Amino acid sequence: MPLTPEQAKTICAMPKAELHVHIEGTLEPELIFRLAERNGVKLPYANVEALRDAYAFTDLQSFLDIYYAGASVLLTEDDFCDMTRAYLARAAQDNIRHTEIFFDPQTHTARGVSIETVINGIERALAEAETQHGITSRLILCFLRHLSEEDALQTLETALPYFNSHGHRLIGVGLDSSEQGHPPTKFTRVFERCRALGLRIVAHAGEEGPPAYIYEALDTLQVERVDHGVRAIEDEALLERLAREKIALTVCPLSNVRLKVFEDMGQHTLHQLLKRGLAVTINSDDPAYFGGYLNENFLATFHALDMTMDDAYTLAQNSFEASFIIDSEKQALISELAQFRAANAT
Ligand code: HPA
Ligand code: ZN
């Protein structure tokens, strides 16, 4: 059954958490050009339209090439703050109550931007959003898997002063960028060190890569959530394990369609994963590049798949349960969702 306008409105108004968004992927073309001008960075695109026209991706790598080019305009603390502020204003419109944000320090340190500039700029906007929009947040540092483990280890060392330190929201690490040919086991030692430091652990796995990469993320990196993970559908034993161990999948429907993981939204396996009892969540990944923020991901999914309002509440509940906030904060958000549901019961 297609969603009624009333149901679509309820899904949009529902309190929810976002657990898979790359802050560099929230950089809209207009802001890319504004920052390029401010910083005197020359872009290989004539204007906003020409850049947007280049967003015709064929796979993950074709997207990453443009995503890294877009991030080249970020130089100062203000740039990182402006980018993060714009995302949080948009998140507030989608009734996101809590967000866990990825950032890619190596993309910036390779250009001579210090990790301090990156983290301080992002943190400034996160603190501001807490008072301005009532949105809480955490930060997750992602290692780029196309680079070496040695590079990841060095990056970790430079970030150590910021982890779990007073006033900072940096709580964990993840693994992103080109998946094929860069299995999780390439990063065994750096994740071992992260676990010893007590950091929260996630990794992208099973987006383009095979189910074997999801097993490696679970067994070797010991992730607490799997980012994407949609290719788990190919392995019955893996599905059973993910459901049994309550390992959340941070699924990104518009991203999967734009990067041709699925031919169209009607082919997406999100509903099947949910019916198999997996802790599925919906997320936007790189909303400026994939045609929609969180609510647009919810609506596109619900319009294409035969899902109910019960499913929408389950997805929102999963997003709070799978978050890395302390139990009391988690319970407060879950109560808020329950109150919303009671007030909107038909
Ligand atoms: N996959 C891998 N790396 C990424 C992605 C993604 O979807 N978005 C930004 N970096
Ligand atoms: Zn991602």
Task: List strands and helices in order, with pairings.
Elements: H1 5-13, E1 16-22, H2 29-39, H3 48-53, H4 60-71, H5 77-93, E2 96-103, H6 105-109, H7 115-132, E3 136-144, H8 149-159, E4 170-176, H9 188-196, E5 200-205, H10 211-221, E6 225-228, H11 236-244, E7 248-251, H12 253-258, H13 270-275, E8 280-282, H14 287-290, H15 294-304, H16 309-321, H17 327-343
Parallel strand pairs: 1-2, 2-3, 3-4, 4-5, 5-6, 6-7, 7-8
This protein binds hypoxanthine and zinc ion (ZN).
Hypoxanthine is lined by residues 22, 25, 60, 67, 176-177, 204, 207, 255, 285-286.
| Structural class by sheet pairing and helices | alpha/beta
Helix content bin: 40-55%
Number of helices: 17
What is the topology, as strand order, of the major beta sheet? 1-2-3-4-5-6-7-8
Q: What would you say this structure looks like, in words?
A:
Belongs to the metallo-dependent hydrolases superfamily. Adenosine and AMP deaminases family. Adenine deaminase type 2 subfamily. The record marks 228 as: Important for catalytic activity. This is Adenine deaminase. One of its GO terms (biological process) is adenine catabolic process. With 346 residues, this protein is α/β, with parallel strands linked by helices. The protein has 17 helices and eight strands. An eight-stranded parallel β-sheet has the order 1-2-3-4-5-6-7-8, with helices on both faces. The chain is globular. Hypoxanthine binds next to α4.
